[in-house]
Amino acid sequence: MGLTLTEKILKAHLVEGEFVKGQEIGIRIDQTLTQDATGTMAYLEFEAMGVPRVKTERSVAYIDHNTLQSGFENADDHRFISSVAKKHGIYFSRPGNGICHQVHLERFGIPGKTLIGSDSHTPTGGGIGMIAIGAGGLDVAVAMGGGTYYITCPKVVKVELKGKLSPWVAAKDVILEVLRILSVKGGVGKVIEYCGEGVKSLSVPERATITNMGAELGATTSIFPSDEITREFLKAQKREEVWTELSADADAIYDEVIEIDLSKLVPLAACPHSPDNIKTAEELSGMKIDQVCIGSCTNSSLLDMLKVAHILKGKTVHPDVSLSIAPGSKQVLTMLAENGALADLIAAGARILESACGPCIGMGQSPNSKGISLRTFNRNFEGRSGTKDGQIYLVSPETAAISALTGVFTDPRTIGDMPEFKLPETFLINDNMVEPPVDEKDMDKVEILRGPNIKPFPQTSPLSETIDVPCSLKVGDNITTDHIMPAGAKILPLRSNIPAISEHCFTVCDKDFPKRAKELGQSIIVGGSNYGQGSSREHAALAPLYLGVKAVLVKSFARIHRANLINAGILPLTFVNENDYDNINEGDKLEIKNVKADVVAGKTTLTVVNKTKNIEIPVLCELTGRTKDIILAGGLLDYTRESLKN
Ligand code: MIC
Ligand code: SF4
Fold first, then answer.
1. 5-264: what CATH class?
2. Which atom, in ligand 2's list, is nearest to the CA of 296?
3. What pLDDT does 537 receive?
4. DSSP state of 119
5. How far from 351 is each of 359, 405, 624, CA to CA, in Å?
6. How far away, in angstroms, is 521 Cα from ligand 2 center?
7. Tell me: the pLDDT tens digits for 99-133?
8. Is the pTM here over 0.85, yes or no?
9. Domains of the chain, residue spans
């Protein structure tokens, strides 16, 4: 029986477990990446493990998120990360060098390798045939130390692409179509593998747009084959030697098959406030808009920017619209400068931002009140832009650029003839903003630079005999990590300071939550389905840990967040009967008797007694041998420390 590409790469990296779908497997990790918003915590954890040098083939620390330096905090964190990287064998991509996923694809990614990153959009690497997975910082720290990374052995979905995109229809429209079909929870437990004739018509940056935003499906990752087009891209990056041809066997068996005829696709948009709330550009056309933001790890490649420059050339941005553009990397920005396209962008009135995440994570450019903002990004969760009532639409660069000129939502097919946009035969290579680490023999000479904003990891404790605590918060379906632990320019600088950042935990849903949770001392959070979707930020688990949350009981979890809860020693529970969600209210007193003994005994169904309502609620506590031991120890750090002792 033939193998899928996913199975081929995962099997080649399998170090623990049996390759049975739905069961936990351990894989060897070849490469890691971190960014600055999750990186400080990840490197504090790495230091706590006491491993002197990273054991991966390549680990890179990027600075791209916290780039507004409106106080000392971000600059201090950057210096900390830079010094840790230098000492422990990690390459350091300096601020200004670009967005982690864009730069990693350009300069470091290798087909067939495994990559984990402390950022949920790490699957961008799937655009060149990597198994690239987003993870919590602690999992990345363990992988840097040579430890195994654990995932649920995924199902594999085949997306068979046919035909070729019509003029002005973009790769972004392909992933928006997949989101329309599968929804933001349709990818949980699955890898999305792209195959078929249509693959050949997509360049690497286009493939990377699709795998990047596959994160919004909740998927483990997404992957394209590594073919001639991949080889051309790597050759143009002067890295042809790392190329290998990779594809699924012709007779590979998939768990699900979706067919998409590229020639039938039309420009699409994800409407507020969810990436799967899809409408066609035609349906939305004519709607007045206030802002356009072009960039982010989804759509900031040279190809995207050249299309935008072509549309804007010789024109002026509509007087009622603010247009910002952040090219994805120093390579992209320099090439735009050299070929004159940057001048076209500036002349049209675009506000050029540095090569970083910027507005995508609320680092500036928040829209006006109730402002309608078209963005080429991947997430439009409520409040993420920094304006609570901002209305964010996710679109292709083509739709964004033409709408910036007209001042209303515009279908890009109205532009007229589309020229052929080609990638250059060689990209401009200059890695001078990537600092290599010092040699191992010199590592003791490197001083770690710690600013006053860096506070230690929160206190953990082993699982208690019984959990007897109230419900401090009840939330609904599709709660994102942006609800649990908001980001933005004001809160992101506190990422290294859990006590301070905890003051903002869940304040999007309930501004009194942090105070209430602290007063209660210990508590349980209750939620709906797909709880914790979105980012990989472990702060969405560490802040609740700091606020005394012992367990989270929901209808279902998003993958990375569930792993982060376990790593933080918080018990993840799901309702056996979803209707029991209605049997708990905020403030109810809940008890899970003998929880420790039951977890030790491997019981997977526990009973939560709602003492206020006098009801017994069966809940699932699905822990494997390893995750069980982590929960018992009080989290992954304690577990790792104990395992190192033995
Ligand atoms: C995001 O897009 O939400 C982020 C900011 O890149 C996060 C990481 C973080 O919260 O630091 C992600 O996607 O994992
Ligand atoms: Fe940065 Fe936005 Fe990409 Fe997250 S999604 S890595 S914030 S550009």
1. alpha beta
2. 8
3. 97
4. S
5. 12, 14, 51
6. 34
7. 999 999 999 999 999 999 999 999 999 999 999 99
8. yes
9. 5-264, 268-410, 467-645
Give residue 4's pLDDT.
98
- 268-410 CATH fold: Aconitase; domain 3 (3.30.499)
Fold of the domain built from segment(s) 467-645: Aconitase; domain 4 (3.20.19)
Give φ, ψ of 398 to 5 degrees: -65, -50
Q: Is 535 a catalytic residue?
A: yes
Q: Do domains 268-410 and 467-645 have the same CATH topology?
A: no
Is residue 500 within 8 Å of 457, Cβ to Cβ? no
User: What is the average pLDDT score of the chain?
Assistant: 97
Query: For residue range 219-230, what is the model confidence (pLDDT) as tens digits?
Result: 999 999 999 999
Catalytic residue among 119, 227, 304, 411: 119
Pocket of ligand 2 (CB under 6 A): 65, 99, 119, 121, 296-297, 357, 360-361, 377-378
**DSSP β-bridge partners for residue 14:** 27
Pocket residues: Cβ below 6 A from ligand 1: 37-38, 65, 119-121, 134, 361, 379, 487, 534-537
Helix (H, G, I), strand (E, B) or coil at 536: coil
- Among 107, 300, 333, which Cα is nearest to 206's? 300
CA 363/CA 359 separation, integer angstroms: 5
Structure tokens at 561: 């967040």
The rounded distance, in Å, linking the Cα atoms of 90 and 202 is 33
Question: Closest ligand 1 atom, CA of 215?
Answer: 13
The yes-or-no answer on residue 344 being catalytic is no
Question: Active-site residue among 537, 539, 559, 561?
Answer: 537
